[in-house]
## 1
Amino acid sequence: MTDRVINESSKRITCGYNGYPGHKGVDLGWRQDENQNKVYANCKGTVVEIQDGLDRVPGSSGVKSWGNYVLIKHPNGMYSRYCHMKKGLLVKKDQEVDENTQLGIIGDSGNTTARHHHFEVQTGYSSDTRIDPTPYLTKAIYVELDPQPQPKPEPAPAPSNDFKVGDKVIVSGYATSDSLGGGSRTAEYNGTTDTLYITKITDLTKPRPYHISRGATLGNQDRGWVAKSQIKKA
Ligand SMILES: [Zn+2]
């Protein structure tokens, strides 16, 4: 996993959370190579506070002690704060940012004794909600949820069978000697209103799956096979 906030941040901890009483962030060391001193947002969010233009303010407390800082609100209501950066921050208040947005460069502004980055994470706006930010050196504070899975299309309904063996039906067209549609014509029903019985039903994917008989049971004056479109309930 690629580290966040600064390059290889998880390897650059110089003072951990609660490393001394009241230290509610994690300190990350600077490097000679200035490319390694770029500070990035942890993840998607909005810049809600900025303080810029400060040099070192030894002995300061409160907001000033953070020096040049950026406070970001993330979409899940958590906050991250990036402190002691060099003058000339690279983002503005209300700017939308993400993990590819550089906020500034590691500096020594505010109450510091040496150049370093101080990173904090809060579960809410108040500083009283600060938590150990160490896990967020290697993971996003806010993880975008996957879009709602689309409902799967309904499977095509199996061929429905509105008829059952024993139904009394009126037939049109003609019946044949087999259910595949070939075979000889075994009975003609155009224009008739004779009542017949369904006496057998075979595979509904066949062209003529319904067997009809004059009598109510198979073998009782059988007439042959017809298609569904040829029958209606009597
Ligand atoms: Zn610190």
## 2
Amino acid sequence: MAMFPCSVGNHRYQGPQQSAYLGAVNGTTSERVKKRLCPEHTASLIDVADQLLEEMDVNAPPSGSGLSPTRFCFRCKAEGNSWALFINIYPLKQEPRVWFGSACATDINEFLGVMGLVP
Ligand SMILES: [Zn+2]
Ligand SMILES: [Zn+2]
């Protein structure tokens, strides 16, 4: 039995708690949030991450291209964006999964809204 309610909807649940970190960074400005998630909402956050961002291969060699986040805005595909986005998910008994992306000044608000960083 999890000790804390799920961060999505604050509902109680059976089963193991999993955690995720979401963030957006723009120079010295950063927005980060930690979420405690039930198994169901962990799965739905993975779906969202797959749709919006690019998953990094955590097993790729350090010199590989797997470490380069995409330069294109996740929504409008504009190039040269100032916001770097990330989602880290820690599924139970599995390797952490990491997604990266970027956003333009307009679409950052969309990302923050999706991630529940702003009301
Ligand atoms: Zn939940
Ligand atoms: Zn954009």
